[in-house]
Write a structure and sequence with these properties.
Layout lengths: L16 H18 L5 H9 L3 H14 L8 H39 L1
Helix pairs in contact: 1-2, 1-3, 2-3
């Protein structure tokens, strides 16, 4: 069950991958049983006490990851995030090296005069 809300503010709850997968399977099962997508996410979310939008996003991402619908897969998004982090680190290292080269170049100029 979700955590209690205090002062009207929603709380953030982290769901395990197993909880997410089970909820997605329930939505898909209900869709197959009813033969429609209408209201299935809302019904499952209400039964489990999960946020409707959270569950909707999980189902959409599962469809993308399985190639049912087009989009950026979870693996691709993780790879892009890792590459962006590496890019930031390399830029930071290059800036440090540039400043060091400038500093030591100026120091050598002073020694040669």
């Amino acid at each position: 069950m979700p955590k209690e809300q205090s002062a009207g503010k929603p709380t953030m709850r982290r769901y395990s991958d197993q909880e997410k997968s089970a909820a997605v399977r329930m939505v898909r099962s209900l869709r197959a049983e009813l033969g429609t997508e209408h209201g299935t996410v809302h019904r499952v979310a209400t039964q489990l006490g999960y946020g409707v939008e959270s569950l909707r996003v999980w189902v959409k991402q599962a469809d993308i990851d399985e190639g049912v619908t087009p989009g950026v897969t979870t693996d691709e998004a993780a790879r892009v995030k890792a590459l962006e982090q590496e890019n930031r680190e390399l830029k930071r290292a290059n800036e440090i090296l540039r400043r060091a080269a400038h500093f030591f170049g100026a120091e050598l100029d002073r020694q040669n005069k």
